[in-house]
Structure formats: C-alpha cells, structure tokens
Amino acid sequence: MNAMVLASNTGTYDVESKVHPGNGEFLMNVAIGTPPNQFYAIMDTGSDLVWTQCKPCEECFDQSTPIFDPSQSSTFSKMSCSNDLCQALPSSTCQDGCQYMYTYGDYSSTQGVLATETFTFGGSDKVSVPNIGFGCGADNEGNGFNQGAGLIGLGRGPLSLVSQLGEPKFSYCLTSIDGSKTSTLLMGSLANANSTLSASNSKSNNVITTPLLHNPSHPSFYYLNLEGISVGSTHLPIKKDLFTLGEDGSGGMIIDSGTTITYLEESAFDQVKKAFTSQMNLPLDDSGSAGLDLCFKMPKDTKSMDVPKFVFHFKEADLDLPSENYMIGDSDMGILCLAMGKSSGMSILGNVQQQNMMVVHDLAKDTLSFVPTQCDAL
C-alpha cells in the first residue's frame, strides 16, 4: 500500500527522539500541543495509529506525566469524517468528529476521537510538526500500556507517523532492555547520516541488509524473508517454505519493536528448543516461574555461561545474535531462559533480539539493515 501523506506535512522533517527501555517495551519522548506537553509513548513498528490518553477520561490507566488536555492547546482540532486518515481507520463512526476504536494483538484497545495536533520532537534541534493526525483516547484498556501515555505507530499504513511525515527512511537503536540508558529514533536525512556513522562505529563493521516484503492482507507490517535458523554449528532442518509469506497472506515473519520476545512458528520453535536442550548441558527448569517456554537450571554463583550461537538466516543476510539477545538469565532465581516463544502462523522478531543494533528501515529501497552498534554510546 502506498503511504498517503497529508498535504500540510509534505515538507522534509528531520525528526530525532530519545528512546529508553520500559518494561518489555521501548518508549519515545514526544511533546504534544501548544504549549507543548511532554509525554512518553511506546515505539511500535507493528501498528499505525499515533495516540495518547486525553481528558476527559472515561477509562484511563496511570501514566507518569499529566494526561493531555486538548482544551488547553491552541492547535488542537477534531478531524472531519471525510479526512483520508479517518477513512483509513479499521473501525470508526461519525458523531461529533471521527470516532475511532483501535485494538492490538494482546487485546489492549484505545478509543476516542481522531484529531490533528502539533507534535514536537526533541534532539539537538527541536522540530515541531503541525497537523499530525492522532487518536485522543478517552477509553484505553489493556496490560500493554502501563508505562507510557500512549503509542507512536511506525508501521506502513497511512495513519503511522512514518507515513504522515512522508519520510522514506527511519532508524532506531535499542539499548539493553534492562538498562537505563537512552538511545535515539531518527527519521529523514538524520537516519541516513546516523546509519553511516553507526556503520563506521560498528562492533564488527558489519552492515547486513535484507529485502522487506509487502503483504496486501496486512499492509502495515514490515515482513522479512527468513530462510533458516542455526543453533550452535547446526543448521536446523526446518522446511524451506516454513517462514514463507503465503499467497493468502498467512505466515511470514514481521519485525516489531512493540513485541518483547521473538515468536517462531510452532514447528520451528520445537526444533530450536530441541537444539538448545541438547547443546546446553544444563538440567531443564520446568517450574514455569519465568513464564518462558524453555528454561535451564543455572549452577549457583554463575556469573557467565557459554551458550550455543544463534543465527537467523534472512535472505542475503545472516544475523548472528549476541547471546544477551536470546538468553535471559536470573542468577537470583538460578535460571537461564531462551527469550523466544511459539506462535501459530505468523512469526515475529521482537525487541529483545534487536538490542544494540542500529535497525534501518529504508522504504524507498524496500530494505531493512542491521548494524551491530553500542546503542548507548551513539
């Protein structure tokens, strides 16, 4: 699907935003309204809608910053139902403006009115962008939102920030998920400059690039072409077409900054599990205390462990993950777990697997690049 760009936003915006780890999510710093109100929003490449909680709230979760009050902003404007962005919503009704309802894969949801507002992004030069279409959410429910004040959709559909800014390139670099240091999300020419800088600072000078695929059934997602997986020195005997995107729109693998762990199609996950079990030389922990599918008992006072290598073989790109991007240890609990789970159908590359990598989405070339990078040092 071609991204629609609002006529008022066809300038070139070099957007920079601080990104920091939350509880399984990564949060962006954004300001909204005139005068600008700072808030944190979940950075999500797996959805499109940009939204924040708004007064008056019918059902709102706790957030660390004040809830946005549109009556206090001079640039807030409700969107008419004839607007292209209202038409692009998966579900909307027309009463006192364009009313939306938007749900996520974990059954969280937001509903309210679609509006336009000025968004201000930080960095060395603050950039204010007028007339960004966003959801002013009065009824927001679910477990997924208990840390930000909303969500910034960075998918491919017309409602996303990427499409509204009309910038064909963006990049982000995620710091360690259990750390406290920040990194950055960049759009426009900044993403170009930073991916070059990152390549020159890269731990291995290794930029790997793989094609992005389109799925007409789910046009918002960034699909990757995963051809195989290796654990240790074993190239797993996974059926060649297991991760292929089906003609009916099923299957395939997406990359999603808003999902924590990676989910692999069940039969592939079973093979990964089997390979780790045979190569780890540690007893299995079946207590289920970590809530993950595969855990091992770790000897007491262990500070470091040798674990098998893990490689995703994408088309034209082998992504050799550092061990902290797929094994999660808890020395207090004495367990070491694989940060992956099983899914039926679509597979998802989550944010744990993307730590300390510059991830560059180039929508003009339809490619995705990974550059191993110490993200908190950029």
Automatic annotation (TrEMBL):
GO molecular function, one term: aspartic-type endopeptidase activity
Pfam families attached to this UniProt entry: TAXi_C (PF14541), TAXi_N (PF14543)
Keyword Acetylation found: no
Annotated PROSITE patterns: ASP_PROTEASE, PEPTIDASE_A1
Ranges for domain Peptidase A1: 26-371
UniProt keyword Cell membrane present: no
Catalytic machinery residues: 44, 256
Swiss-Prot/TrEMBL keywords: Aspartyl protease, Glycoprotein, Hydrolase, Protease, Signal
InterPro entries in alphabetical order: Aspartic_peptidase_A1 (IPR001461), Aspartic_peptidase_AS (IPR001969), Pepsin-like_plant (IPR034161), PEPTIDASE_A1 (IPR033121), Peptidase_aspartic_dom_sf (IPR021109), Plant_Aspart_Prot_A1 (IPR051708), TAXi_C (IPR032799), TAXi_N (IPR032861)
Record-level GO BP terms: proteolysis
GO cellular component, one term: extracellular region
Family: Belongs to the peptidase A1 family.
Protein name per UniProt: Peptidase A1 domain-containing protein
